[in-house]
Amino acid sequence: MEKINVVITDDHRLFRKGIHSIVKDFEFVNEIYEAENGLELIKLLHDLEVKPDVVLLDIKMPVMDGIEATQKIKEQFPDVKILILTMEDDEQIILYMINKGVNGYLLKNADPDELELALSQLIEKEFYFPSDISNLVLRNIHNGSRKEISLNPELSEREIQVLELICKENTAQEIAEVLSISKRTVEGHKKRLLEKTETKNMAGLVVFAFKNKIVHI
Predict the structure, then answer these.
(1) Strand pairing of 104-107 and 81-86?
(2) How far apart are CA 36 and CA 16, in angstroms?
(3) Angle, helices 157-167/202-211, rounded to nearest 10 degrees
(4) Please, are residues 80 and 52 in contact by the beta-carbon 8 Å criterion?
(5) Do 127 and 98 meet the contact criterion of CB atoms below 8 Å apart?
């Protein structure tokens, strides 16, 4: 796994420093930057010549909160992955942030080992949600949000195969090996799936697949 660059964004200095001291010991982490609110984060992203791979982002912050920062990152830096790291465990907030295109959601009471897993999964599979949050999303799909279901786009048989493997949390390399195609071809299929389904990332694709019954649990 290649080394990654990370930005920790939180308005509590002690918490930032604590996360910094944890993350710096992860073997796959290279540079670590800090920002105390969303506005400072966006400025940092503009200033950095090499953009970070992942932003750890709190939701409640002064000046610019995590919700507004997420929207600006998705508009201006779409390749930067967002891992929400917050105390906000309200179901509606979680579902709202997933809908906005965040790549992962983790509560601040998580163990350091889970934070390490989340960061590695974001790089290898493009999304990470703990089992309780994944179950929340699935419950929401089954119980309720059927009014938001989109008509199925015209997906090829190969695209459906790729989508099924994405939902099983396979990496691009693993998908390539299962389907006996190149990793580059897999990335092409993933790009077309995002375009056809009008979703923002792999997490959005998974939600789309279950909502539209393309993939079954």
Answers:
(1) parallel
(2) 8
(3) 110
(4) yes
(5) no
